[in-house]
From TrEMBL:
Role noted for this protein: Converts seryl-tRNA(Sec) to selenocysteinyl-tRNA(Sec) required for selenoprotein biosynthesis.
Gene3D superfamilies named in the record: 3.90.1150.180, Type I PLP-dependent aspartate aminotransferase-like (Major domain)
UniProt lineage: Bacteria, Pseudomonadati, Pseudomonadota, Betaproteobacteria, Burkholderiales
Reactions it catalyzes: L-seryl-tRNA(Sec) + selenophosphate + H(+) = L-selenocysteinyl-tRNA(Sec) + phosphate
GO MF annotation list: L-seryl-tRNA(Sec) selenium transferase activity
Gene Ontology cellular component terms for the protein in this record: cytoplasm
UniProt name for this protein: L-seryl-tRNA(Sec) selenium transferase
EC number: 2.9.1.1
Cofactors demanded by this protein: pyridoxal 5'-phosphate
Pathway: Aminoacyl-tRNA biosynthesis; selenocysteinyl-tRNA(Sec) biosynthesis; selenocysteinyl-tRNA(Sec) from L-seryl-tRNA(Sec) (bacterial route): step 1/1
Domain L-seryl-tRNA selenium transferase N-terminal: 11-46
Enzyme class: transferase
């Protein structure tokens, strides 16, 4: 039945008339004409399609709501209660205040980004992080680009264009869909020379593959998977020594690349760039925003001659970091100079090392208000769960944590939809809350909840 059948007249005003209404002129005043015009057209089209008429106030109200929705920034802060600390879709590492302050300083005015204050001559943006990176990794030289995928691409393109790169079949990795080593290799203009098998690759496999077309040997850290059982990989030191003997650069893509031994904080061991350099790698690449806990960046450290060749590649210019990244990275690296206070000052490390007892206590403090917020709609309790490090770091290692578990009251029927709806409701909070659905419940892992007051302030007692 259409509106006409129901006897309602479709008297929608023309868009030009609507723009002249005082309430809408005020909107144009504050948000600009084209945005309001878009909202007005959308609202009128919506009413026309639904074959509904409308009062002037109703239409103006609809336009207002559409304008509000259009001006909300799409990129917003959220609470990551998924239990995955380094969540790529949720922006990975939270930055320490020192890094944020450093970004604010350079963002608000001019800086000596590429200017040498001593000589008054042109400088190099890498200078703000290179010495720090060399001190922290023991490497001779360092450079930075936008992310580790770029670091790998640039390294391969600079050192192995139209030549062969030897990689173990056990390390032909894919990270999050878009980063697949064979694809990156092809785009870098290199020929992939696979050696060994999926589960076992030996030093002699590399040795046999080395020839006149070989440009380098690449070892990629198994970031997001582990091969277990009957396995073998070439010893890194021996492979490094073999490469040296043959005069081939040995490049290691570490992926996460923590700068400290995580075992100090009771976390699983992960090789550091310093250890990898010591083991004989000529170049090591790693991310800035994984276990390092800094801004998105790709860090390349190693031999001075190879780093110089990489910096000369015109592609480096297309992948260079901006001043905000350099400022934040420098500030985070400076925190690493004092390992004693690191765990409190680098948020990623603080969250990873957060004691389960502290998380449990937090969960019990939040429980009553959350329960009140849900009213009779759901039941909440505190349960032990396992958090993940995320971003392909230490894929098989889980960290004991605690979550608030929300379940529907009574019948299990239709609970899947109920849970989806509940998850959607939490995403609509002023600061969206992202949890996870597992085992017939909505789970909020509190490992990454530090702003307890901000979270509680959004929980209102249920209207029921
Ligand atoms: C994460 C990862 C990358 C990609 O790093 P981004 O900083 O996300 O670009 C490359 N290689 C390995 C081994 C990784 O773990």
């Amino acid at each position: 039945m259409t509106a006409l059948d129901r006897g309602v007249h479709l008297r929608l005003p023309a868009v030009d008339r609507v723009l002249g209404w005082p309430a809408i002129s005020a909107l144009i005043e504050s948000h600009g004409r084209s945005l309001v015009l878009q909202a007005a057209r959308d609202e009128l089209a919506f009413l026309r399609e639904r074959a509904e008429g409308g009062t002037d106030e109703g239409i103006a109200h609809g336009i207002h709501e559409r304008v509000d929705a259009l001006v909300v920034p799409t990129l917003r802060k959220v609470f990551n209660l998924t239990g995955t600390v380094l969540h790529t879709n949720l922006g990975r590492a939270p930055l320490p205040p020192e890094a944020i302050e450093a970004m604010v300083q350079v963002a608000s005015g001019a800086s000596n980004l590429e200017y040498d204050l001593g000589t008054g001559k042109r400088g190099d943006r890498d200078d703000h992080v290179e010495a720090l990176l060399c001190r922290l990794t023991g490497a001779e030289a360092a450079t930075v680009v936008n992310n580790n995928a770029a670091a790998v691409l640039l390294t391969l393109n600079s050192l192995a264009l139209r030549r062969e790169v030897i990689v173990s079949r056990g390390e032909l990795i894919e990270i999050g869909g878009a980063f697949r080593l064979p694809d990156i290799m092809a785009r870098a203009g290199c020929k992939l020379h696979e050696v060994g098998t999926t589960n076992r690759t030996h030093l002699r496999d590399f040795e046999k593959a080395m020839g006149t077309k070989t440009a380098l040997v690449l070892k990629a850290h198994a970031s997001n998977y582990s091969i277990q059982g009957f396995t073998a990989e070439a010893d890194e030191r021996k492979l490094g020594a073999l490469c040296k003997e043959r005069g081939l650069p040995f490049v290691v893509d570490l992926g996460s690349g923590t700068l400290v031994d995580l075992a100090r904080f009771g976390l699983p061991h992960e090789p550091t760039p310093a250890q990898t350099v010591t083991a004989g790698a000529d170049l090591v690449t790693f991310s800035g925003d994984k276990l390092l806990g800094g801004p998105q960046a790709g860090i390349i450290v190693g031999r001075a001659s190879l780093v110089a060749a990489i910096k000369k590649n015109p592609m480096k210019r297309a992948m260079r970091c901006d001043k905000l990244t350099i400022a934040a990275l420098g500030a985070v690296l400076r925190l690493y100079e004092n390992p004693e206070r690191l765990i409190q000052r680098v948020p990623v490390l603080r969250l990873l090392a957060r004691p389960p007892t502290e998380i449990a206590a937090l969960a019990h403090r939040v429980l009553p208000l959350l329960s009140q917020h849900l009213g009779t709609r759901g039941q909440v309790d505190v349960v032990p769960v396992m958090s993940q490090i995320g971003s392909g770091s230490l894929p098989v290692d889980l960290l004991p944590s605690f979550a608030l578990r929300i379940k529907p009251v009574g019948s299990k029927k239709g609970s899947g939809r109920w849970l989806d709806q509940l998850a959607g409701e939490f995403r609509k909070l002023p600061i969206p809350v992202i949890g996870r659905i597992a085992d017939g419940a909505f789970l909020l892992d509190l490992r990454c909840l530090e702003d307890e007051a901000g979270f509680l302030a959004m929980l209102t007692p249920s209207p029921e």
